[in-house]
Design a protein that fits this description.
With about 325 residues, this protein is an alpha/beta fold. It has a single domain, classed as Aldolase class I (TIM Barrel), CATH 3.20.20.70. The chain contains ten helices and twelve strands. A twelve-stranded mixed β-sheet has the order 7-8-9-6-5-4-3-2-1-10-11-12.
């Protein structure tokens, strides 16, 4: 069992398969990508991912989520998914949805039933402006394909004030006839994404906007939930808000992250990392490193800032870009 000094049990591992992506979403990618940005990362091999995941499972991990970049652009993604399916865990994935149609059978074979798809607008032209690529039709088709095949589908939408907050009610309307679970995510600061507090559309602002059109009911949350969940009577789906900036949920956090180059992060906002892959390649026991990393986890927000996001100076936060960490 992996426990930190605040008695939080950590049983959820997120593994980034690659820091590359076929989209260029500006909240995830550094705005000005330097030449060779993706070329020098020493990535974990399939076998190394398998070994490291096995160690985490031996020490209590019950859920593994595969992330990127875009995890499905990795050439051996199917093999990795099938290899990890041997473990007694809930296996899930977060994807931008572009290649989902090529992986439906692999998901089914692996017993992977939960898929999170990123989509930031229901207006094709706006989605193109945000993502940098014209893939709206393919993504929405693949969301429908997942629903048709009885997958549990969440749609992740990063809300940036002045950009797409007016899409919120459209996403909620989508849940009326489809069993979709929309997750609105407050804009978070990462290296190179030009975050500012003026761009945060907060949890309360979202609820106020939604209440102008819908009556909704608060759903109960589990201890480790990052999203505050809501239900509109008569709708087949639900919506939720991930309020990392305005109402953090650190007290129940059970998450650990493994970057594509094998560094372990105990918090999305932590400025420290532990080189698990390097130790493994030297033949060292990685268990003490994992336990120490979890134990040293800060009480909240990586210890880098407090909950008053309106006073936050993002230039003082030391972290990777989101695409380097893993979604």
């Amino acid at each position: 069992m992996l426990i930190d000094q605040f008695d939080r049990v950590h049983d959820y591992l997120r593994i980034s398969l690659t820091d590359k992506c076929n989209l260029r979403c500006n909240y995830c990618n550094p705005v000005d990508l330097p030449k060779g940005y993706f070329s020098n990362i020493n990535k974990m091999s399939l076998e190394e991912i398998d070994v490291i995941a096995g160690v985490f499972v031996e020490h209590g991990v019950k859920k593994i989520r595969l992330t990127g970049g875009e995890p499905l652009i990795r050439k051996d993604a199917k093999d990795i998914i099938l290899r990890l399916s041997k473990y007694p865990v809930e296996l899930a994935i977060t994807t931008n949805g572009v290649f989902v149609h090529e992986f439906i059978e692999t998901f089914q074979q692996a017993g992977l039933r939960s898929v999170n798809v990123s989509l930031d607008s229901l207006i094709p032209e706006k989605n193109l402006a945000i993502s940098g690529r014209d893939e709206y039709a393919r993504v929405t088709q693949n969301i429908k394909l997942l629903i048709k095949n009885n997958f549990h589908v969440k749609v992740n939408t990063v809300i940036i004030k002045g950009i797409n907050e007016d899409d919120i009610t459209g996403f909620i309307e989508w849940t009326k006839h489809e069993p979709l679970h929309i997750r609105f995510i407050e804009f978070m600061p990462f290296d190179g994404n030009k975050w500012s507090n003026e761009k945060v559309f907060s949890h309360n602002e979202m609820l106020n906007l939604i209440s102008e059109k819908y009556d909704f009911v608060k759903l109960p949350n589990d201890k480790h939930d990052t999203a505050k969940k809501y239900f509109i009577p008569g709708h087949n789906g639900t919506f939720a808000i991930i309020s990392s900036m305005s109402q953090p949920f650190c007290s129940g956090c059970n998450r650990m992250r493994l970057t594509t180059d094998g560094k372990m992060k105990n918090c999305l906002f932590s400025n420290s990392e532990v080189d698990i892959l390097g130790a493994l390649r030297k033949g060292l026991d990685i268990v003490p490193l994992i336990k120490q990393c979890v134990w040293e986890k800060k009480e909240s927000l990586g210890g880098q800032f407090d909950t008053i996001y309106k006073d936050l100076d993002a230039s003082k936060i030391s972290n990777r870009s989101m695409i380097n960490i893993g979604g």
